[in-house]
Design goal:
The structure holds two protein chains of two kinds.
Chain A lengths: L5 H24 L13 H27 L6 H32 L8 H21 L4 H15 L2 H11 L22 H64 L6
Chain B lengths: L2 H33 L8 H10 L1
């Protein structure tokens, strides 16, 4: 990979190895559920992708956007980091919705329902797709980055709504299994199921870090390519201008009386 | 579809989506590396170094 370095190769190997361990724990070691049978194993994908998208990816995007807007810390680094993290987050939130839909079909009998948790998560996907669209609107780079940072901070308002949706409204979606404040140190999920879930969260966190670094470096390369293209276009225009001037100067030399 | 069928669909979809995203990053990275005209080394650091040398 052209955006690779020794560190990212190590990170990539760790991410793939931990994902393989997650698959083994999820598909072989952990038991099937009494009611959901094998479909319960979708939990080990659904929860980590949701965790990564909502709290980590969009959290990083929001923090990076705040750092970009704050004059003391403003730099291209924060803008590019925000964009890279949002793109990876959109991938994970889309996967969360897709896996959730498949799981919903297996357990509830429907692919989709306008449940508060599902709807607010779909809104979150649309908001961050909008954020990525704002990043592509042609404008002065600084203006575009400021606009995007404001949109990112506004979009993050939906994250606590998604988190609390199962508490605020009567939903088909189950309440929190791990981040339940009343049972934080005594979660409902136990044994190999809990182990598979924790390893899954760690594996997806490594995967996120790996993808984020590559996407960030790619964004930097895109900027360099744009700068190069602009510099080439300006040089071309200057060269064209020079060629246009040359015959006029020659004519002037041939007809000195024309010059006042 | 059985419960196992839904399980396979979920894992297959995740694998394909992640692999497609990684492939896109690789393809775009290589395309940009060609645009930036880097012959030596790899990675963004090399791109930045090449740019600085210019």
């Amino acid at each position: 990979m052209t955006t690779a370095s020794r560190a990212t190769r190590v990170l990539g190997v760790l991410a793939i190895a931990s994902l393989a361990l997650t698959a083994w724990l999820a598909l072989v070691v952990s038991p099937p559920d009494v009611n959901q049978k094998d479909a319960v194993r979708l939990l080990y994908l659904h929860v980590p992708t949701a965790w990564l998208a909502m709290y980590v990816s969009f959290g990083v995007t929001t923090l990076a956007s705040i750092f970009y807007l704050w004059r003391r810390t403003r730099s291209r680094f924060w803008d590019l980091a925000a964009g890279a993290s949002a793109e990876v987050g959109v991938l994970f939130i889309a996967l969360t919705l897709a896996i959730g839909s498949i799981w919903g079909r297996a357990t509830w009998g429907v692919w989709w329902t306008w449940d508060a948790r599902l709807t607010s998560t779909a809104v979150l996907l649309v908001l961050y797709l909008g954020y990525l669209a704002v990043r592509r609107v042609p404008a002065d780079p600084e203006v575009r980055s400021k606009r995007a940072a404001i949109v990112a901070i506004a979009a993050f308002v939906d994250v606590p709504i998604v988190h609390q949706s199962v508490e605020w409204w009567r939903t088909l979606h189950q309440p929190a299994s791990l981040l339940d404040r009343q049972r934080l140190f005594d979660p409902q999920i136990k044994g190999t199921m809990a182990l598979a879930l924790v390893v899954g969260v760690l594996a997806f966190t490594l995967l996120y870090s790996w993808l984020l670094i590559h996407r960030f470096r790619l964004a930097r390369m895109e900027e360099l390519a744009d700068e190069r293209q602009l510099a080439d276009a300006l040089a071309e225009r200057r060269a064209e201008g020079g060629e246009a001037d040359a015959p006029v100067q020659a004519e002037d030399r041939l007809a000195p009386e024309a010059v006042p | 579809m059985t419960h196992t069928g839904y399980l396979v669909a979920g894992y297959a979809l995740t694998t394909v989506a992640l692999a497609a995203y990684v492939a896109r990053l690789r393809w775009r990275g290589r395309a940009l590396a060609r645009v930036l005209g880097r012959d030596e080394g790899s990675g963004p650091k090399a791109a930045v170094d090449t740019e600085a040398r210019r």
